[in-house]
Specification:
It is a single chain. By secondary structure, this protein is an all-alpha fold. It is built from ten helices and no strands. α1 crosses α2 and α5 packs across α6.
């Protein structure tokens, strides 16, 4: 990996403005809708859960649900992490290698998940399981990857002095997003057993160093 450009932007935590009331209300509403969905899906299954039921459980109107989430699948695949990841990636030291920055911010995101800041471990596990078991959720997750990928393109371009639309930048960033999605699927397929943070470390190590050969097969 190349060393990040020394001119990369870096903000300080003290400089970050607190969220306004409007944004806090939006996050609160999205979280209420998401938690209501998870609860209903746990009780009766994904296919049997309707937007009308979700709205009633979240104490909002169906139109409000659709205003925040265009489809039922979006409730599952959309989260609050992208803005946080973008901010934290920009906060990393300018001379830090990108894989090290990614490893740090992803560990922070996982710790938040396990601490229940945005979702509980059970909700995180349910989301991963639905991605594996429900084709519509998996398809929407793949589509939504482009949003996270574009965010990463902006940050990587800033740190490397490249254009975010360059093929190399897009391939690199979408490769990372796709690889992290596979790590989540791997965790879900094994019944959420094992350390998700360790799976992320393994994923980023493959991207950084390549696949290589198993030691037992080495000459």
């Amino acid at each position: 990996m190349t060393t990040m450009a020394a001119t990369a932007h870096r903000s300080t935590p003290a400089a970050r403005p607190p969220l306004g009331l409007r944004e806090r209300k939006k996050i609160k509403t999205r979280t209420a809708i998401r938690k209501a969905t998870y609860r209903l899906v746990q009780e009766q299954g994904y296919d049997a859960t309707t937007v009308e039921q979700i709205a009633e459980a979240a104490e909002v109107s169906p139109s409000t649900v659709f205003r925040y989430f265009p489809t039922k699948e979006d409730i599952v695949v959309t989260d609050e992490y992208d803005p946080v990841l973008e901010e934290e990636l920009r906060d990393r030291p300018a001379d830090e290698e990108l894989p090290a920055s990614l490893r740090y911010v992803m560990r922070q995101a996982i710790e938040r998940s396990l601490s229940g800041e945005y979702e509980t471990r059970e909700e995180m596990a349910l989301r991963a399981r639905l991605m594996v078991e429900v084709p519509a959720v998996r398809s929407r997750m793949i589509e939504s990857m482009s949003v996270t990928g574009r965010m990463m393109c902006r940050v990587v371009a800033e740190r490397t002095g490249r254009d975010p639309g360059e093929l190399e930048v897009r391939v690199y960033c979408m490769g990372i997003v796709g690889a992290l999605m596979e790590a989540s699927r791997y965790w879900a397929e094994r019944g959420q057993q094992g350390d998700m943070a360790a799976y992320v470390d393994r994923t980023l190590a493959v991207l950084e160093h390549g696949l290589g050969r198993r030691k037992s097969e080495a000459p």
